[in-house]
Amino acid sequence: MTTAALIVAAGRGTRAGSGLPKQWRALKGKRVIDWTLQAFRDSGISPIVLVLSPEDRGAWDSFAADSDLVLTAGGAERSISVQNGLIALRDLNRAQAGSAHNLPISKVLIHDAARPCISQALIASIIEALDHGAAAAPAVAVTDALWTGAGGQVTGTQDRSGLFAAQTPQGFQLDAILAAHASHPGGAADDVEVARAAGLEVAIIAGEPDNIKITRPEDFARAARILETENKMDISLDVRLGNGYDVHRFGPGDSVILCGVEIPHDRSLQGHSDADVGMHAVTDAIYGALAQGDIGQHFPPSDPQWKGAASEIFLRHAADLARDMGFQISNVDCTLVCEHPKIGPHAPQMRSVMAEILGIDPTRVSIKATTSERLGFTGRSEGIASLATAALVKP
């Protein structure tokens, strides 16, 4: 099933102050509508029907090249604009009928362009709820006391039990809301009212206080503060992943060094250093996450000072470089590929040694092994290979 979004952007928004309609006004370096569209695009929603006023010719031109948008004209009131958007989705389904590359649109999220602070989590919640019903919409329970008033004076109180402040996006099965709008006389406050008039049950999904609708001039400043906080959360965490791979052949000897642990064996691994294939792979994974090359660039095998060197020198250098660049090592995962020796009995000690060098808890170090089912050079016991992944985080 495919979910589409229908964003209503044809209103004039006179309560938001003079000038352009609110959806076209600036908000933290973009237009309000751009923030709204970005939220749905970041959630992977496509297509997006954008309902525009015929008067906003500049807007039509600015979106003409956007392949994920379907543009359609709004009407004299919101319900007509929504119905026009729903018809555009119906027509799109018909045009794509029988195509092996396009699933039919079955769900639609109807959203106000003037709610630019909608979160991806809330969008996902509405979509998930539509797996279990025909309609779902977000709302925030009313918790403040409610008064009635006249002439600037309080005239009474209103029971707030069971009252909710409605939000968008309001989600529906496409066929159901199309039929509901087709039979509705118009003048509804929102699409939930249209749906309920058609007998549809609407599930209430927990809304978000930050999912505000820009209505008055002061709402722009509030929306800017919310978006600033959200953006800081998005960009404050720099997460890097790196992969490493290494292989060494067997030669004469009586032990191998793997992930810093010497293991008795009838042969040794050959290499310019101590040939610790596991530690080398983890080292390269860290360098990779930092985009800082590989071991050979930092410790050239042509340099005699590294002949027979302990591989922990390389790993400590990579870990120190990560810290110098402002990163924390979140975790590492190393897989050793060999027929012999057996890795399992030594894995706990390997984790402890690697964790000490990396400066992280052993619970963040994974050491595991597999065979290659006697295939290839590792299957013929000609050597050992290792693959590693490292995750780095900059707070």
Task: Name the features.
5-stranded mixed beta sheet; Spore Coat Polysaccharide Biosynthesis Protein SpsA, Chain A; 8-stranded mixed beta sheet; alpha/beta; 395 residues; 60s Ribosomal Protein L30, Chain: A
How is this structure best described in words?
With 395 residues, this protein is α/β, with parallel strands linked by helices. It has two domains: 233 residues, Spore Coat Polysaccharide Biosynthesis Protein SpsA, Chain A (Alpha-Beta Complex), CATH 3.90.550.10; 157 residues, 60s Ribosomal Protein L30, Chain: A, CATH 3.30.1330.50. The protein is 32% helix and 28% strand. The protein is built from twelve helices and 19 strands. The strands form five sheets. Strands 1, 4, 5, 6, 7, 10, 11 and 12 form an eight-stranded mixed beta sheet that branches. Strands 16-13-19-17-18 form a five-stranded mixed beta sheet. α5 crosses α6 and α8 runs parallel beside α10. The longest helix is centred in the N-terminal third of the chain and has 19 residues. It is elongated. The two termini are 38 Å apart.
Which secondary structure elements does this structure contain, and how are they paired or packed?
Blueprint: E1 2-9, E2 26-27, E3 30-31, H1 32-42, E4 48-52, H2 57-63, E5 69-73, H3 78-96, E6 105-112, H4 120-129, E7 135-141, E8 146-150, E9 153-158, E10 164-166, E11 170-173, H5 174-183, H6 191-197, E12 202-206, H7 219-235, E13 238-251, E14 255-258, E15 261-264, E16 268-269, H8 277-290, H9 295-298, H10 312-324, E17 328-337, H11 347-358, E18 365-370, H12 376-379, E19 383-394
Parallel strand pairs: 1-4, 1-6, 4-5, 7-12, 17-18
Antiparallel strand pairs: 2-3, 6-11, 7-10, 7-11, 8-9, 13-16, 13-19, 14-15, 17-19
Helix pairs in contact: 3-5, 5-6, 8-10
